[in-house]
Amino acid sequence: MVLNTARASSAAPTGRFAAFSFVDQITQIQGVTRVCGLYTIPVNVEHFPSSLVAEALGQLAAWVAMSTLGFSHRPVAALAGDTKIFSLPKPGDTLELIIDIESCDVESIVYRGHALVDGHKVLELADTVGSMLDMSEFDDPVALAADFVLLTAGGRAIGAFKGVPRPSLTDLPESTLGHLQAQLAVPAQAAFFEDHFPRRPVFPATLLLDALLQLAVRVAAQAASGKTLRLTRITNVKVRAFTTPGASLVLSALLAAPGSDELEPYMVKLTAQGEGKTIAGAKMYFALAGDTA
Amino acid sequence: MAEAVITKEEIMAVFPTVQKTMADALGCDVDDIKLDVSLIEGLDAESIDFLDMVFRLERAFKIKVPRGKIIEDVRGDMAVTDFEQGGVVTDKGVARLREYLSEIDESRFKLPMRVDHIARLYTPETFCKLVIRAQRASQAAG
Description:
The complex is a heterodimer. Chain A is of the alpha+beta class. Chain A has 3 helices and 12 strands; from the N terminus they run E-E-H-E-E-E-E-H-E-E-H-E-E-E-E.
């Protein structure tokens, strides 16, 4: 089904369905197999990391999952097996989002997807699994159904996202060469909490990944002795628990040896812990800038 | 119809892959994954790990395991109300559970048993059997 592609032109809202929403329009739905959409990065948003491109893909998958299940359940970030990063989009770029759904039921959604800018792939997700949870715990199902209609009937006004502050990390004294540890102070209040989620504020896992990336970049740079690196892949992302506003997390980045079948020279294992418990983990891979790995 | 017996040979044939897959999912050493260790009490697995393990096993063995498959299989043709009452497994349900999870030591079936505590019984062998059943179902479907 190809949907109406005429854009809405009303003023951008704020808060719910705005402050952390990364689908402007759903342009095509092919049953519960493929869905396409668009998102334009506002021109005044300077920091739009790759993790937010992944967030946009995840949100597009979520819209179809929620619609398929009659807005009784919504998926939340759980597993992302393999994310490839090709380039970083710029402010003003329009992301073309494409999701292929492998399965979707009241327990989970399994999908893969990719994002393009001007026909060039910027990011690709594979082996992605979202856990389904009771919708009413997070947002008003009726309001979400109305939002879905808006997205599929021409889309919403672009430009609602005002950006997110870069994560603030404080190095911990336990850090050693090749193993950095830092404290992440999750803000107690932020605009994105109004949207993620209106009834139960949760620190987005993609912002946590962006914070982990900051640490991973430093560890990889130590190992590369100042050579310029680029992030190529994020694998084994597992989100084990929700992070609430105001939480204090300990992030850890440990330089590790990549597997013999891996092309990138640098791999960093990452964990986030809250109250002594691991709440998220991932591996990030870096190649020398200019290499095709 | 009674299920065809799953032999020790069948279990040991799939165990190395199950073992490696579970170690990857749980971030532990392969040697920590013993056939009879409790995944929750022995290896600190959580619900997200079960989702991860099933997903990885599907990929590794090219099988499809519907979510909630273990409980569904345990119950079989038994009505839900015969299997559980108010979230607690009935005597008939426990008997069916013991039969299905025959690899689990008797002493680990603590009564009364809540349905949401059944997963505490699961071991790597439970997942080996899940894989074998899925393989058989796939072969039967042609």
